[in-house]
Amino acid sequence: MALAVSDILALPELRTRLVSGAQGQKRLVRWAHVCELADPTEWLGDGDLLMTTGMGIPPAPQDQRAYVQRLANAGLAGLMIGEHMQAPPDLDALLQHAQALGFAVMLTHYGVPFAAVTRAIVDAGQQEEQARRNAITRVYESARMSIQGLGLATLLKRLKQDVQAQLTLLDAHTLTPWRAELSGLAPQQREVLASRLRELPGNRPVVQRLALDSGEVLV
C-alpha cells in the first residue's frame, strides 16, 4: 500500500522524526525526491516528499516562511531535512509556519541515505500493485463461482471481502436494496447520495465517484 508520512516515521531503519506539522502525517507520499533549489516546486508537486540537505533553505525568517508556504501550496506531502548537514542553524520560522499549515517537517539521521527513503516508497508501491492483482484474481474467482450457482447475497459477501469495501445492490430510482435479503444504506447515506445524484447531469458516466462524509462511494 502507499505510504503515508506517518508510515515513514514508523520505519525504524529510516531513523526519522517529526519536528513540525503533526496534522500532515496522514498525507500519502507518491514519491520522494532530492532537491536543493530555492524553489523546489519547479520540479516537485502533489504527493511528493522533498528530501534536502538544507542547502536550499533560506536563513532569513520571512524567506523560510515563504519557502514552506510554497511547498504546502504545491501539495507536497512533506519536507525531510538531513540532520547535521547544510540547513540554517535557526529553523524556528520554518517550523512555526509549517505547524500553522499542518505541513509535515521531518529530520532524518545523518547516517541514513535518502536513497533508503526512495526504496521504501518503491517497495510499498510494489506491494500495493501485488495486492491489487491478488484482489482482481479473487474477484474473477468469485464471478466464476456465481456462474456456478452462488447466491446473490453470498456473492456480494465474497466480493466485499475481495475488494475490502462495503457493497450493496440498490434500485437505481429508490436507492433501496434490490432484493429484500440484501443490506441497504443507512437513511442518512441514502438521503445524501440521492441529493448528490440529482445534482449530476443527465448523461452520467457509467461509474461515478462521490465523496460523502462517511467515505467515498462508487455508484
TrEMBL record:
Q: In which organism is this protein found?
A: Pseudomonas brassicae
Q: Which Pfam families has this protein been placed in?
A: PucR
- The domain of life is Bacteria
Listed name of the protein: PucR family transcriptional regulator
Known InterPro entries for this protein? Answer: PucR_dom
Q: Where is the Purine catabolism PurC-like domain?
A: 7-123
